[in-house]
Amino acid sequence: MGLEEEIEEIREEIRTTPYNKSTEQHIGRLKAKLAEKKEELERRQASSGGGGGYAVEKTGDATVAMVGFPSVGKSTLLNALTNADSEVGAYEFTTLDVNPGMLKYNGANIQILDVPGLIEGAASGRGDGKAVLSVVRSADLVLMLLSPYEIEQYDRLREELYDNKVRLDAEPPRISVARKGKGGLDVTASVDLDLEEDTITEVLREHGYVNADVTIGEQVGVDRLIDGVMDNREYIPSIVAVNKADLLDEAYLDTLYEGLRERDLDPEEVTFISAEQGKGLDALTERLWDALGLIRVYMEKPGRGVDYEEPLVLEEGATVDDACRKLGGDFEERFRFARVSGPSAKHDRQQVGTDHELADEDVLRLVLRR
Ligand SMILES: Nc1nc2c(ncn2[C@@H]2O[C@H](COP(=O)(O)OP(=O)(O)O)[C@@H](O)[C@H]2O)c(=O)[nH]1
Ligand SMILES: [Mg+2]
Known about the structure:
CATH architecture of the largest domain: 3-Layer(aba) Sandwich
Number of helices: 12
Oligomer: single chain
Strand content: 15-25%
Bound molecules: guanosine-5'-diphosphate, magnesium ion
CATH superfamily of the largest domain: P-loop containing nucleotide triphosphate hydrolases
């Protein structure tokens, strides 16, 4: 039996086995087995040429992967938001390509990737579809583009990403597994777990763990347990935009909102745009900025004042040390202390060290050794 058939067979068994306490352990084992088999299949496909090594060069301060069905308006939006000219600098591989564009906002360079192959390529299971998915996996944010009359496409998009180890809008599970020489499997949980301990050990065994210390810090189901054990899932935030709002009939709004709510999407959080007419694009850009969680730090340069034009763009929670690192060169080595003014400072020109946490719109001055 081929690997693909084995996978299908396990899927079928999971589908047809009712879930209850007495089958939980069995299902846990099946799901763990399925995850391992899928991994093996992927490895084989990667090594038999076609995809695998493909990656778009990440540039700018952050990368957004835009996904959506054909004809929802991805190319139109990319051209409206960015300097992209789909022709220029298109990354091509066989029939699928990823089109990059750069959006300038708040002094930051936000790379937007139009990823057309997500549905077309990935669904067919071709190597290049997998390659497209590797682009999504390395993004900082996923932007899902929908048509107002085809909201259900959202489900397929999420499924496709989930199947390919992308976990949207979730934190990594608080699970750690450390192999040891002997002693079997030792499970410690800081919460009262719903899962039976036998299910947990069964899952771990299926993943090849014989002796290990397992720590679980949250209530988990089987799927999330496997995610935690596999440790190769990407946890990426997402936002949703509904394009072609110009075609939207007011009488249809209630139905649309209901469709969104059914999918746990708050209509208030969804951005309605018309890429073609250039409407709603400022609101979308703001949403992107918020979701990316970036901060601007204005650098004060000796004798040249504060540069408000080209801020240093960092992730929320970044420290002075992160700033030095992003600046590159020998800032890290020559660092003596820094002076910070603005939201993160107790007072103007507060003297701080490398571990000081910066905030949006801080002014930072680095004092260096000669
Ligand atoms: N009415 C309307 N049509 C749009 C809008 N955005 C894109 N389109 C049209 O939808 C079609 C598909 O757009 P395209 O950007 O190629 O979609 P893609 O396949 O997702 O890249 C084109 O004919 C566009 O002109 C929009 O906001 N409103
Ligand atoms: Mg397109």
